[in-house]
């Protein structure tokens, strides 16, 4: 049996995407070997990973359902109904994400999620190999070499095809680049992030509204906080790398306290270990990774962050990586020539990855600078009204991305058309009740085609 028709496959990385893909394939009878650089987190408790919790949305949940993991994951998820905006003067405003509690997102603990996915991958029959960091690949002989981080020993494994689920710093991508030009470029945002923690109240409760994603928008920078089921919140401070304030000007715990006293005063009493958290936790860089090519004939393919890392402001990196897994498993199952399956996977997913990468960048500006502007609030109000009046044609972009599974590229294009419409319809108005609704309805019908259904 040759590589194209065998059902053997080797995955690099047992993070979120690697563990999910292993499950999807093993459940369909594939012989799956997964090599992971770190030790088995089920033995020693989860170690590391920068973002402690993640927003899970419908795309991700759909993939989890297909893998039989949704129930276990949802058992520890916390519902987030909307953005709780914390204004500088201490006022708060909950901006709902969707129409009701059927349109929400979920905060999940990254470590717990990884543990669940590893467990179901193993139960599905995948062979998990820990302490095996991909070090080099001989693509001609189809031999991969792995290093054991405990003693530096090298181990070899033959492969038919490699799948790179080894994250933004992918070693497989680096090995593929030595063979072919992948058209790789990384654009740094010029902003970084640092994590802090809000502990539970003394009686063990949440110290702020649990069912919301909290945002403190401050123009060029912001803080957010997501709830954890153990009643803590993970706070993420996003600051530019240069300027005032920035990670260059706020360097130690005392300077962080001064920044919070001035700009995040209502958050300050909630973070008792601000100084220690700030000094102990490293600042993470934020960047977008673009590749023109994700595969090397039938021998290797990349997905998830290894193929298209993005900035985290739409909360879609993992959701997109999970969608990649479903798509790749489907292409592999069609039984085509494996190189053709990888080509079809790239053709389907690359334009969509580009679209969500662009929307994630745009969302940063919206979150830190727009959520408290008057024109933005008027457009949001009209958006809600149009979604009510024309549910078959108008859907807020956030809803298309978050609560539905239409291709990201479709959501991006429709979102641009809708934004132009909102700007045009609200021009010269500061209240919705001065609009001519007959003209508004006609304009919607003329400019927006009916929405596609989720497949
Ligand atoms: P990873 O999760 O990074 O997994 C890669 C795995 O490969 C790891 O287990 C690693 O140890 C292993 N590995 C690495 N190198 C090797 C090697 N050489 N050999 C073997 N194994 C290796 N996404 C969302 O959907 N919602 C959010 O709210 C969200 N928030 C985020 C907040 C922040 C601050 C950041 C930085 C990201 C956020 N993301 C979010 C994005 C999300 O974390 C990633 O998109 C997701 O983790 C990608 O999954 P992955 O499996 O491709 O990579």
TrEMBL record:
Ordered alphabetically, the record's keywords are:
FAD, Flavoprotein, Monooxygenase, NADP, Oxidoreductase, Pyridine nucleotide biosynthesis
Q: What class of enzyme is it?
A: oxidoreductase
Q: InterPro entries, from UniProt?
A: FAD-bd, FAD/NAD-bd_sf, Kynurenine_monooxygenase
Q: Does the entry feature the keyword Cell wall biogenesis/degradation, yes or no?
A: no
Identify the pathway. Cofactor biosynthesis; NAD(+) biosynthesis; quinolinate from L-kynurenine: step 1/3
Molecular function as annotated in GO: FAD binding; kynurenine 3-monooxygenase activity
Q: Which residues cross the membrane?
A: none
Please name one Pfam family that this protein belongs to. FAD_binding_3
- Cofactor section: FAD
Start and end of every FAD-binding domain?
A: 11-356
Catalytic activity from the UniProt record = L-kynurenine + NADPH + O2 + H(+) = 3-hydroxy-L-kynurenine + NADP(+) + H2O
Q: Which GO terms describe its biological process?
A: anthranilate metabolic process; kynurenine metabolic process; L-tryptophan catabolic process; NAD+ biosynthetic process; quinolinate biosynthetic process
Enzyme Commission no: 1.14.13.9
Q: What does this protein do?
A: Catalyzes the hydroxylation of L-kynurenine (L-Kyn) to form 3-hydroxy-L-kynurenine (L-3OHKyn). Required for synthesis of quinolinic acid.
In the record, the note on similarity to other proteins reads: Belongs to the aromatic-ring hydroxylase family. KMO subfamily.
Q: What is this protein called?
A: Kynurenine 3-monooxygenase
The organism is Lysobacter silvisoli
């Amino acid at each position: 049996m040759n590589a194209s028709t065998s059902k053997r496959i080797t995955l690099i990385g047992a993070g979120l995407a690697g563990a999910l893909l292993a499950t999807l394939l093993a459940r369909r009878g594939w012989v799956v070997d997964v090599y992971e650089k770190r030790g088995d987190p089920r033995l020693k408790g989860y170690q590391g990973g920068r973002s402690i919790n993640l927003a899970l949305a419908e795309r991700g949940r759909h993939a989890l359902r297909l893998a039989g993991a949704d129930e276990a994951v949802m058992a520890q998820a916390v519902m987030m109904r909307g953005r709780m905006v914390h204004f500088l003067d201490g006022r708060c405003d909950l901006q709902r994400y969707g129409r009701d509690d059927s349109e929400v997102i979920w905060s999940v603990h990254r470590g717990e999620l990884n543990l669940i996915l590893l467990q179901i991958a193993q139960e599905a029959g995948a062979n998990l190999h820990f302490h095996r960091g991909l070090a080099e690949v001989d693509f001609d002989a189809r031999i991969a070499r792995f290093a054991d981080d405990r003693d530096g020993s090298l181990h070899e494994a033959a492969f038919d095809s490699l799948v790179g689920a080894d994250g933004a710093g992918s070693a497989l991508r680096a090995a593929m680049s030595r063979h072919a030009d992948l058209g790789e470029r990384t654009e740094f945002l010029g902003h970084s992030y640092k994590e802090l923690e809000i502990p539970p109240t003394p009686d063990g409760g949440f110290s702020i509204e649990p069912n919301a994603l909290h945002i403190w928008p401050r123009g060029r920078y912001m803080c957010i906080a997501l709830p954890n089921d153990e009643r803590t919140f993970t706070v993420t401070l996003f600051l530019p790398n240069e300027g005032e304030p920035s990670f260059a000007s706020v360097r130690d715990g005392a300077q962080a306290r001064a920044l919070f006293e001035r700009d995040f005063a209502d958050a300050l009493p909630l973070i008792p270990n601000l100084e220690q958290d700030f000094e102990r936790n490293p600042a993470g860089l934020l960047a977008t990774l673009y590749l023109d090519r994700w595969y090397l004939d039938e021998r290797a393919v990349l997905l998830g962050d290894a193929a298209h890392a993005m900035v985290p402001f739409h909360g879609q990196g993992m959701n997109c990586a999970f969608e990649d897994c479903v798509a790749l498993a489907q292409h592999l199952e069609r039984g085509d020539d494996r190189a053709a399956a990888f080509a079809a996977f790239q053709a389907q997913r690359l334009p969509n990855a580009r679209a969500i990468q662009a929307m994630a960048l745009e969302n940063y500006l919206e979150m830190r600078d727009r959520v408290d502007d008057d024109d933005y609030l008027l457009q949001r109000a009209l958006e809600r009204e149009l979604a009510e009046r024309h549910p078959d044609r108008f859907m807020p972009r956030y809803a298309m991305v978050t609560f539905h599974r239409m291709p990201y590229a479709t959501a991006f294009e429709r979102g641009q058309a809708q934004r132009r419409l909102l700007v045009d319809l609200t021009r010269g108005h500061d209240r919705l009740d001065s609009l001519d609704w007959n003209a508004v309805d006609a304009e919607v019908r003329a400019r927006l085609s009916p929405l596609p259904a989720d497949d």
